[in-house]
Amino acid sequence: MEAEGSYVQDDPHVKLMMAGSTLRKVKSRSWKKQRHFRLLEDGLTIWYKSRWAGKGHSTFSVMDVEAVREGHQSEVMLSIAEEFPAELCFTLVFHGRQGNLDLVADSPEEAQAWIQGVRKLIHKAQTMDEQERQDQWVRDWFQKADKNKDGKMNFKEVKKLLKMMNVEMNEDNALHLFTMADKCESGSLEIEQFVHFYQMLTQRDEVWKVFQDYSGDGERLTLEELETFLRLEQGEGDQSSQHAQQLIQRYEPSESAVKESSMSLEGFQMYLCSQEGSIFNPALLELHQDMNQPLSHYFISSSHNTYLLEDQLRGLSSLEAYIQALKRGCRCVEVDCWDGSDGEPIVYHGHTLTSKILFRDIISTLKEYAFKVSDFPVIVSLENHCGVEQQTVMARHLRHILGEMLLTAPLDGQIPLMLPSPQELRGKILLKAKKLGGLETHLDETLTDEVSDEDEMANGDAESPSAEDLPAETTNKKSKLSRELSDLVVYCKSVHFHGFEHARSQAKCYEMSSFSESKAKKLAKDAGSEFVRCNARQLCRTYPSGLRTDSSNYNPQDMWNVGCQIVALNFQTAGLEMDLNDGRFRQNGCCGYVLKPDFMRDADSRFSPDRPEDRPGYKPARLSIQVISAQQLPKVNQKEGSIVDPLVRVEIYGVPQDQTREETSHINNNGFNPVWNETLNFVVHSPELALVRFVVEDHDKTSRNDFIGQFTLPFTCIQLGYRHIHLLSKDGTAIPPSSVFVNISVSELT
């Protein structure tokens, strides 16, 4: 990887970054402080400190940066736009939920050097292959541990570094490898020798054993042997011969082996650690589903209180929260509107101390970011607390800002009998709100401009804890609706739910109801299969209880089990529920739409989540997971000398009968290469709905286990055989090179 070094040094922008710059870090109009920034020698770490902060400094990796925005492209930058011209300003946007870094340079040239330089480094980091990434990870550690910066480490320093890296190993073994790597016998290792030392340290016996099972000479896998492995272990059937050839081309580092069409142990390990060797079937990561079915036939990634970055009582309302949700593939956002003091509608969590943002700024943000990660339609769920005048202002903002993007009439001018498809609505923004009359009544002037508030209140849609418990007479008050706003509602008219019988006989396909989590759960329990049938034809939205003032989430699986499409979650709150949402929508190109199983798309479906065995075509599966080992788990506790005691738990989420979990024993003091070889067995009654979540925890006998990492995916996306699970942080971002190595088999339950 010398290329990294030379590539970095030769670029003028990167040279300037390495020399360092004083930039202003801006947090608000009143908080602007100078910090010295520079790029370290590894070409990946950006270091910064205040000039007077003595020894204190901060660093972050270019790998953590998702994008660089130029000019006034964040709320903070817009607030200081008068003071600093756009050509001096730029914003670093990070992966996950980490806040932006807003910076102001002294000259346009310096700003450009950092903007272009960071973009080049991000591109470089994204295009590294597995081996380069692994080597880079090791180099980063070496840089961190090389305290006196002489580029060398003696055995004592190496031992300390191994501890930092979560490696506990016996001293004789470590010394033996150290001596082998120290070719010059100088008693210390330079960085390249350390990379070699580390490679010897990470040679994996459990991968070697699998390799030995199929290799005739124990040195190489011939093309035929690799084919046999792919067919027998990886479940690849007919494609195995063609695939074996591709894998050798792609992952075998030795040119002589490639010429002979064979694979060494190194190549085999590289394949197993790659995307193709991962547990998630790469073909299903792409957009592959039929997108021409009615909207009601899809699960739709949906956010609740989208404007909040924190909790619901004091949190920050922010445009960045919309950008982050849309970036995660969210296709239904919520806007909570109130009358503003100067005639401009504002958005915040009503009657609380959350900060306020302008409705029109949210719509401008939507225009810019709605279709960056997915072309499929975005639904704006409007919670409207405004008077008629400001409703009309909202309608005008929607029309003027969004223009052609806003859907304002049925697609072909026809009254629909079923909802249009995501494909037909590509690039469109749909408004979900109350409407005067229906699509059928071409509005005559006699139509009243009042709608009953009981629509929303009786389903608890006012999202306050008391709304669900109020007697009907107090909620049945009228509120006035602006004709202009009403006219913008086409396929998502909010209505009160009058029961499944009424929905079947009277309801229009473009009418939809919203339910609080408790109401939805009660309906699912009392009338599961009716709920499934209703959701085959109409959209339905569920949202967290108003009592969750900490912005916690409910389990979305309970709602998906009855076919609810718009299961709104607090995207700003990391944890199990968002892991499930990310797992469900990671498939199909992360486009925010996932086709429901066929038995949930049929208006005459007999499927009930409580009795999955009653449906025609019921095929339960037996899932067997051998948890073999884990690699390079991150340290949870930063205390000097603490090493993790990991265990792996597998959790199944699906219909009630499928909700279960099993775990391995824990292994003491080994986060580096723990080996379990334990098998966990499950029976899954509705595989088409199930999600499988792998969690690694640090065992603690006195208190709750600490979370180390997780990965969640749909049962239907699992690849069989020997697979690596690449772990994600609590925030859902990658934590390379941490992984779990498993062997998976699935069979029909007979």
From TrEMBL:
GO terms for molecular function: calcium ion binding; phosphatidylinositol phospholipase C activity; phosphatidylinositol-4,5-bisphosphate phospholipase C activity. It is found in: Cytoplasm; Endoplasmic reticulum; Membrane; Nucleus. Residues 485-601 form the PI-PLC Y-box domain. Residues 601-729 form the C2 domain. Ca(2+) 5 binds at D698, D700. SMART domains: C2, EFh, PH, PLCXc, PLCYc. Its EC number is 3.1.4.11. Residues 445-478 are annotated as: Disordered. The active site is at H304, H349. It holds the Pfam family PH. It catalyses: a 1,2-diacyl-sn-glycero-3-phospho-(1D-myo-inositol-4,5-bisphosphate) + H2O = 1D-myo-inositol 1,4,5-trisphosphate + a 1,2-diacyl-sn-glycerol + H(+); a 1,2-diacyl-sn-glycero-3-phospho-(1D-myo-inositol) + H2O = 1D-myo-inositol 1-phosphate + a 1,2-diacyl-sn-glycerol + H(+). Its main location: cytoplasm. Residues 133-168 form the EF-hand domain. Substrate binds at K432, K434, S514, R541. Residues 446-458 have a biased composition (Acidic residues). One of its GO terms (cellular component) is nucleus. InterPro entries: C2_dom, C2_domain_sf, EF-hand-dom_pair, EF_Hand_1_Ca_BS, EF_hand_dom, PH-like_dom_sf, PH_domain, PI-PLC_fam. Residues 15-123 form the PH domain. It is an enzyme of class 3 (hydrolase). SUPFAM superfamilies: C2 domain (Calcium/lipid-binding domain, CaLB) (SSF49562), EF-hand (SSF47473), PH domain-like (SSF50729), PLC-like phosphodiesterases (SSF51695). GO terms for biological process: intracellular signal transduction; lipid catabolic process. Binds 3 Ca(2+) ions per subunit. Two of the Ca(2+) ions are bound to the C2 domain. This is Phosphoinositide phospholipase C.
